[in-house]
Structures are given as structure tokens and as C-alpha cells.
Amino acid sequence: MELLKQRIRRDGQVMAGNVLKVDSFLNHQMDIRLFGEIGKEFRRRFEGCGINKILTIEASGIGIACIAAQYFDDAPVVFAKKNPTKNIAGEVYTSKVESFTHGRVYNVIVSKRFLGPEDRVLIIDDFLANGCALMGLIDIVRASGAELAGAGIVIEKGFQEGGRIIRGMGVRLESLAIVESMSEEGGVVFRG
Ligand code: 5GP
Q1: Kind and range of the H or E element at 178?
Q2: Interval 89-117 mean pLDDT
Q3: CATH number of the CATH domain containing 113
Q4: Which of 51, 91, 120, 170 counts the highest number of beta carbons within 10 A?
């Protein structure tokens, strides 16, 4: 998605530790007009897939998913909660996710009331790095008996292994910008 790539080139900052900082428009301050264009692009790519629910993970995925949902017949957005405490077994789907940016392991949970076999799910998230967050969400979709239509990612870091693993699982993965390489001196180079 050209508009997104231009914005990353202009405002993205390459940080130490393979972190791309895009907090001026994507995951701290949020450019809602850009989010609208991102939502339209997800709809274009998943048109006709019968999506009736969008699943994301707190916190950064929520804003993007909410704006995108407007282009999917107002499908409800469910966000997985990162929960450090124990939950009553039976009421929630759970999965473990190791955070790339914080290095912590979270238990993520989704209430069984909000995801089930009647759902056709699109997963949306801001970044794909090693794939832990996405794999946790995929686990939850599978446990619920819902059908996974695919995953829409805003920025995939193609030099990390998540994309290869998720595509290798046969999941339809659509990333709007794939970073081939990045460095503090050379900036960001995109795939394709
Ligand atoms: P993964 O689980 O695929 O390793 O990492 C995905 C999660 O880590 C995303 O939900 C995102 O919040 C965070 N993340 C991964 N890489 C980056 C990055 O380069 N920049 C930022 N801002 N967040 C990242």
C-alpha cells in the first residue's frame, strides 16, 4: 500500500533492537484518515470472504481494527486481553503470547461469549515480527471453532520469521507494507 509506505519512509524511525517506531501515526498518536485508507485496503483484499467478526489484541490493534470494521458491514471487533491474573477455567479461551517489544509473556484471553463456530474471523494487528501475537490469536480462533478467513497486518517485518511461519501454516496473510530490511543509517527498504 503506497500511501502507507510513504508515511513509514517519512515518519518511521528505526530504533535499536529491530524496532520500527511509528508512534506518530500508528500506535500512539493515530492518523485516523490513514486508518480509513488501511481499512479500505483490508476490505479490498478480503472482499467476499463473508467476514462477520474482527479479532485483534490490545492495545495497538484496537484502533486500527475499529476503523477497519466500518468497511466490513460493521462487524463487531473483539480484542484479546493481556491478562496477568488467573481466570476461571471454562469461560474464556486462553493462549500464551510473548511480547516482542516488552519481552514479557502474557496470557491472552477472549470470552467464549464473543467467539464461536458461527463466526468467520479476520484477525487484524499493527505489526508482525516473530509471529507470537498472531499465533496466539490463531490458537484462540481455532479453539473457538470459528473459521479463520485470514489475517491483515499493517506492517510486517519480513526479515523476522513470523510471516514465513504463518504462511507456512496455510493461513491467508495480507500485510500492507513488508519491510525487507532496515537500519538506522539506511532507513527502511520495502519488499515489492
Ligand atoms: P510478534 O508477536 O509478531 O513478534 O510481534 C508483534 C507485536 O509486537 C505487535 O503486536 C506489536 O505491538 C509489537 N511489535 C513488533 N515489532 C514491532 C516494531 O518494530 N515496532 C513496534 N512499534 N511494535 C512492534
Answers
A1: strand 173-183
A2: 90
A3: 3.40.50.2020
A4: 51
Angle in degrees, CA 190, 24, 57, rounded to 5: 80
Distance (Å) from CA 81 to ligand 1 centroid: 16
Ligand 1 atom with the smallest distance to the CA of 131 is 3
Q: What residues are in contact with ligand 1 under a 6 Å CB criterion?
A: 19-22, 27, 60, 100-101, 125-134, 157, 162
Of 69-83, 87-101, 117-131, 161-175, minimum mean pLDDT range: 87-101
pTM: predicted TM-score of the whole model, two decimal places: 0.96
Q: Are strands 53-57 and 77-83 parallel, antiparallel or unpaired?
A: parallel
> The domain containing residue 117 runs over which residues?
2-190
Write down the ipTM of this complex: 0.97
